[in-house]
Write the structure tokens for this entry.
Amino acid sequence: MTTASIPVLTKKDFQTDQEVRWCPGCGDYAILSAVQSVFPELGIPREKFVVISGIGCSSRFPYYMNTFGFHTIHGRGPAVATGVKITHPELEVWLATGDGDSLAIGGNHTIHMLRRNVGIKVLMFNNKIYGLTKGQYSPTSEFGKKTKSTPYGTADRPFNPLGLVIGADTSFVARSVDVFQGHLKDTLKKAAAHKGSAYVEILQNCNIFNDGAWFELTEKEARSEHVVQLENGKPLIYGKNRDKGIRLNGMELEVVHLGNGNGLTEKDILVHDEHHPNPAYAFLLAQMEEKPGFPTPIGVLRSWDRDRYEDVMSKQIQDVIAKRGPGDLAKLLSAGDTWEVR
Amino acid sequence: MTTASIPVLTKKDFQTDQEVRWCPGCGDYAILSAVQSVFPELGIPREKFVVISGIGCSSRFPYYMNTFGFHTIHGRGPAVATGVKITHPELEVWLATGDGDSLAIGGNHTIHMLRRNVGIKVLMFNNKIYGLTKGQYSPTSEFGKKTKSTPYGTADRPFNPLGLVIGADTSFVARSVDVFQGHLKDTLKKAAAHKGSAYVEILQNCNIFNDGAWFELTEKEARSEHVVQLENGKPLIYGKNRDKGIRLNGMELEVVHLGNGNGLTEKDILVHDEHHPNPAYAFLLAQMEEKPGFPTPIGVLRSWDRDRYEDVMSKQIQDVIAKRGPGDLAKLLSAGDTWEVR
Amino acid sequence: MATITDPVVRAHKREVIEKAVLRFCGDSGDGMQITGSQFTNTVALYGNDLATFPDYPAEIRAPAGTLPGVSGFQIQFSSADVFTPGDAVDVLVAMNPAALRTNIKDLKPNGILIVNSDAFTDGDLRKADLTTNPLEDSSLDAYRLFPVGLERLTRTALQDLGLDAKSMDRCKNFFALGMCYWLYNRTMDLTYKWIEDKFKTKALLVEANKLAMRAGYNYCEATEAFQVSYEIPPAKLTPGTYRNLSGNQALAIGFVAASQKAGLPLFLGSYPITPASDILHELSMYKNFGVMTFQAEDEIAAITSAIGASYSGALALTTTSGPGMALKTEAMGLAVAVELPLVICDIQRGGPSTGLPTKTEQADLLQAMFGRNSEAPIPILAPSTPGDCFWVAVEACRIALKYMVPVIILSDGYLANGAEPWRIPKIDEIPGIKVKFATDPNGFHPYSRDPNTLARPWAIPGTLGLEHRIGGIEKQDVTGNINYEPLNHEKMVRLRAAKVEAVTQDIPDLVPAGDPDGDLLIVAWGSTYGAITAGMKTMRAKGHRIGHVHLRHLNPMARNLGELLGRYRHVLVPEMNLGQLSMLLRAKFLVDVQGYNKIQGQPFKQSEIEAKIEEILG
Amino acid sequence: MATITDPVVRAHKREVIEKAVLRFCGDSGDGMQITGSQFTNTVALYGNDLATFPDYPAEIRAPAGTLPGVSGFQIQFSSADVFTPGDAVDVLVAMNPAALRTNIKDLKPNGILIVNSDAFTDGDLRKADLTTNPLEDSSLDAYRLFPVGLERLTRTALQDLGLDAKSMDRCKNFFALGMCYWLYNRTMDLTYKWIEDKFKTKALLVEANKLAMRAGYNYCEATEAFQVSYEIPPAKLTPGTYRNLSGNQALAIGFVAASQKAGLPLFLGSYPITPASDILHELSMYKNFGVMTFQAEDEIAAITSAIGASYSGALALTTTSGPGMALKTEAMGLAVAVELPLVICDIQRGGPSTGLPTKTEQADLLQAMFGRNSEAPIPILAPSTPGDCFWVAVEACRIALKYMVPVIILSDGYLANGAEPWRIPKIDEIPGIKVKFATDPNGFHPYSRDPNTLARPWAIPGTLGLEHRIGGIEKQDVTGNINYEPLNHEKMVRLRAAKVEAVTQDIPDLVPAGDPDGDLLIVAWGSTYGAITAGMKTMRAKGHRIGHVHLRHLNPMARNLGELLGRYRHVLVPEMNLGQLSMLLRAKFLVDVQGYNKIQGQPFKQSEIEAKIEEILG
Ligand SMILES: Cc1ncc(C[n+]2csc(CCOP(=O)(O)OP(=O)(O)O)c2C)c(N)n1
Ligand SMILES: Cc1ncc(C[n+]2csc(CCOP(=O)(O)OP(=O)(O)O)c2C)c(N)n1
Ligand code: SF4
Ligand code: SF4
Ligand SMILES: [Mg+2]
Ligand SMILES: [Mg+2]
């Protein structure tokens, strides 16, 4: 174990000499800063970090992280990362990706990586737009959105990204926001602590092509009315005066008001259980943002331990070696029926 | 409307002169026969049917259907079908695919087609194996399964196919079984009646490379103990003596016994609502097959009406034409600033 | 709102010249592309011939003031024919030190250099890795330097509008534009109009930008900064109505034209990628032409959805660039196997892999020829100028529909974004496109063939009695049934090849520009057309006997090409790749052609072509 | 359980002959592939040289008894060298009318024809589209026909075992096998052994199959059906230990050998596809060699996961066939751009598109050369025989690791499934592979280069102090930083090409087989080796001066090839495509090579090569 003596690392240790090439005001800066301040706190030697990405503004991320980095091709980051993780399960592999990179061209690799539970931490920068290609709609753009490629509005409903990945049985699912630095760092640390795949949707503002996409959630005034923070074991209460809560009624969630004489109190409110054994629970939470009048949940929706693909695979190898001994090339070459020619 | 005078069609009208090239005993025969007997009952002229597929044993389907048919390339059926449906929304487009074709290489096209709610009816032949390539594991093969490509067992958990497509917000989701002809035909008719995308998982036996994959469900004796039929508005009761039921308890489902003195009766049992507005309900049902001791639900899990991609798109076109009149080529060519040279 | 009128033009020295090359350069945020295209439209409308070259970084916005952040727009305009945006620049407008540093090398000795002197603080210099201030050291002595405080002057001009400093500074490019309008005696009306509807909702910005531009104009007028202004008379172009058109626009309207001529709905399946995305943007606006644009989840879905559309009777199209092209190759093979019409546009960019997304290159020719499993031949066309893109789009559709084959169009980033005056054709100048769907069940066979074109019938779903099955597995000729027989396979492979070869019957013999025989034949394709035409002109003037054939049809090639190659002592093939067309010509004709291969993400310069010819002919 | 011993061989006429060609054919369900490989192993162990050719339909099982359902297995074995499975057949075993009908044309006049006469009911005939019974009409008079009631006889032999009819009939192929063992005087021991562990859990089946085979043997012995049996003495092969090996097996163990030699773990990222899947199956069994096999969700994930594995220090590999190859092209470009070692196996099959999945072809050469966006050169190797696959696998890994490049191996369905006796090399006959990871941070640059190979350092994640970034965007040489400068791009493009060219230093000069100069040089590659070698032999015997060079290295090519081409009057290039190597040779050397192009999903026959040579040399 190299972790024996870890040099004390600081944020600066994770910054590179490359000038950051994002638009002034882009939400990506905040995410970069959060990651650069969380990594040193993880107690992992810097050389163990690998940051992989696809293509997109968000995918420029690795160039600005002073770790091992691989800026691959559009949508294929999850597969490249899987190859890295299988070969070296001990590495700390993070994937920076966008709503287009991860959910359009990369959708299949994403859900398969998550299904396999490869121990990769995904940062999905969701700005609901294709930034790098200058403003076409993405699989998370709202229905009817007018963009460069849809001057008359889109004709398709967006994915619910967290709903989709829960459908793929993702073992850790969370959401945070670029400008909520504290919450973001917190969430990243929880993702880092999780053994298997972690999918973190980060709501990010593209101030050039989709400015204000998350205004409702980030704008100081409205914020507390439109966001509910999920904290394990705590009730889903929100509102400037914490006077609103989410109640489970049969298979439906409902927003209720507290202490306005309707007799409802905190104990009527749904208490969050991020370890709920049934993914349907997290799935239900993921549906909230779609429902008018509901706040958007941020924090950890699901955290569930199950075998990691790379571990099962290396165990298979170790077991076979233990049982049959390490492979002998000479034996392999002369396997099966052989005969002598003199 | 061409439907004005529909010739009365019979099963024979949908059979081709090509000899069917599946292994003797393959479950695909039963599915073919069911489809060939349902199509004539839909009151749609034969020339309006288009059957599209990818690659796989299951994808040979179009060759045996005397309709318009397109055997495309591996995994791309959904995209080809989308092109057809957008161009001619009035056509009746069906997609024959396998667990590999639809969920491995074709996973991304599948979830995007379903998200867009293109009016295509998907028949997903789930035999939990790659048949045509002679027996490698598929994304639906059970964890640890030994196959040609995994002699020491698989290292990854399978998709829950219906969970995945519900995660993609599929508007119609159902399951049936190759050998349950009556139920299968019924389910196909319901799929046909649905306006938007319909995803029907058909449990199919590959008697050569994965024989008995669904034995528990199909075998005469055990059948009624391991299958629960979903019928809209009816309680989830099953068992040879209909003495078992599914009860909703908070966010969890539980199997309960009826009339064995525990005081539980039919009214304690969950009543199926295929039109439940919240997809989390169907998602919960989809989780059942995973849970030990639970029966596998067959029938329609979800049926929910929403706009079809192709309709929104053609409406956009009609609206613009209505507003601006049909395009005038001469005007288009000389659009913008022009000048004369003499 | 203050009414704006052009100042009365005071008497000052005016020189009439033939042509000029002007380049705006600055930060990605300085609006150089807008400034450039405004100037372009104005000179176009005035009647000059012109060519433009926008050049910008791959990042949306690299950090302000840095070298990678520099964006440029160059235009050559003239009273004579223009073939290129020009090698060296007569007037350079530089908005900051980084722009100055990266562009100054292209300014002609004694050329006019307008610099925004407000952007030369030590901080600005540092961002451009400059240690001394070029405005002060003597590094710019070779030029006619005009340092202008663009920010200061603009703010003064706008002071009464009550805008914040940032917004005022955003108008400074219009101040510079105004100066250039003065310098070349151009009216500002067109840009006034543009500003008005661009900002229609924001009256204040309308006024601000107009004022800034006018201030720039008046600044020259008042200060007489330049002792002289220039006049470039209109060019003698073929009579007709003209518009200014970029390559991607030309492709887009070309496809609409083809769909109208063929009487088929147009379907575009596409996934955004630089520099092809604009075609998608453009076509998505033409809903009243019944155009269906489908933004797919990836390039594979883009092309396969187009194949589905083609199968059901649409004029189907997919657009992309190199990396996306690579992803479409398996599906192209399917289109070849099922013999359906399809047009595939590859707007080439620098590679390999992600490469240089915003730079131009011609290195996808061999991918287009051979980038598919097994023998899957596809006709290939290449436009030579932005305006030519229109005609190539129509021709590609015509061939696809006539022969029932996929067709590839190879454009590139330089054509896509470059613009030129384009004579608007009369509708009947555009070739008609005949399409006949199969309708008669009698003796219908999905793979029966037209004797001339070898095309199979197009029998679309919904046609009574024509139910049939197609697919990517090898099939029996005529019936289309699955078939693995050895001789049938060979027959089908050769049929698919013969079908593509049959296109030669539609290809006119090549007629060399310049001399019909002699010292040197230049064979080329695509966007190198302008530089070669211009370069050849000068070299012929020097008495060399030079011919030039520019291949619009790359596969198959014109029948008489082999014969032409024999008529000259040397054959030169300039390409922005490592010699791809050269290889095809050598293999086909066994002629020792010389490649001239520049692969820098930049188009050839006229002077480079001239030097190369000089080198060969001495 | 009845103990089984071979019958005492009664005196009967035995003829010693040099070689024989035997073909089993029947329904996909009749177990012809098993029967064939059993016979092969027995013959191999006896010491004959041999070559085999399995040929089966794409469907798992087409309907029993139909023409498309026919599956065949052919073997040529001899006391002399064997180069091909043989053109015409000496002994044909046909299990049903469909098999008889599709295979009879290959049986030599007066050849031995063993037919399962129990399978000739009217129903069976109809399934084979036969109107009359060939056993009764005189259509088979030209052959020595032996109608044998295989079902009846087998059932009789097994009657005491209490098996149902269906199970008994399933043993009939072993009855036929037993007959062939008698016919060629071979021991059945090996097959006994095989049956025992194949059915170990099912004692009854063990006995049944053994009995059936023995019954077949005894049937000949008793009935003296054939007046004569044949003996083919062992071949004089290079001394050593031999095993029988198919091309796909050879690739698999070749890669394991390379990983052991290089001291690197082997990673295979793959998606199943015919005829490449067996490599995945084979490697997935070698866990005790630390082999990691990742069955990806598609071909793109397969290659990109391999690129990730290579990035982190594994010997990375991806295997596929044509359609999958097409899907990997974008990722290959990435591997070229990031300069990481990677081996890509394309087991070619008939195309285009899905084409003929189980048939062989050589039509992916140009895809391998050019099927990527922009200039992305990759070294290409091709094995010439099943056994050679082992050596090519090792060589491909060596080059990939030495030059830090992706390398493509082009095998094909014929090599993949065909088998030959293979001399097992001593471990030290296998070239060592040196690999050095970068470890020293001092002066480390991700794109610094080794002067001889131009390879960049391999600095894998986890290495202290070597943190760095790579990617597909164009980069500055040495530093690897993103860079869009024109001259840097040209430099990098030429560097990547020079790196591949540098491989020539490892390629030995070609030495033609046959004559070093003269009338005709045959240049070829891949699985055509055997037919050409055999054909050339006969034609040289007729006095023609013929040379043959078989290219293992297709890109780059051996240094002396150009010079060789000049030494012969004619150059012939036989290929199972429309002339792909021909094109490369014509372009590179401007030599008018003649292509001989067969594209039928079937390998060349020796006689075809002979006829072609005859045609050229008269
Ligand atoms: C194969 C391929 N197709 C398309 C592109 C063009 N492209 C680059 S990034 C991108 C989408 C970016 O959107 P997103 O992933 O949301 O990232 P963002 O820029 O918004 O952060 C596209 C379409 C490409 N580089 N490669
Ligand atoms: C691009 C490509 N990759 C791989 C293959 C090989 N292949 C054909 S079918 C198939 C999987 C079939 O499995 P499934 O979809 O479950 O169909 P089934 O045969 O089981 O009905 C594969 C891997 C192919 N034909 N094309
Ligand atoms: S385009 Fe949008 S996402 Fe990209 S860098 Fe600029 S602001 Fe950020
Ligand atoms: S292999 Fe399996 S799925 Fe394929 S046809 Fe045979 S039984 Fe059916
Ligand atoms: Mg985005
Ligand atoms: Mg399957």
